[in-house]
Amino acid sequence: MQVCASTTDATRTLHQRLDEEVDAELPNPIRQVLIPVDGTPQSEYMIDWALSNFCKEGDQINLIHVIPQCVPSSCHITCRTLPS
Known about the structure:
alpha+beta, flat
C-alpha cells in the first residue's frame, strides 16, 4: 500500500500538535511513584495502601506488571548406578 507523502506529513503534523497540546495541559507531576503489581491479593493491598498512605495529590502513579518466573523450589537429582 502506497501512502501519499502529503497524508503522511499531515498525520505527523497532527500528532505533533496533539502532543504539544497534551504537554501544555498537563502540569509536571510533583513526584513519580512506581508500584509493582503481580495480580496477587498482596499487590492489590499494596496499591490501596500506597494510594491511601504514601501518594499525594499531583503525583504520577505508574504501575509495573511483574510476571513471576516459575522456579522449582528445590532441585531433586536422582543418581543411578549404571550397569557395568
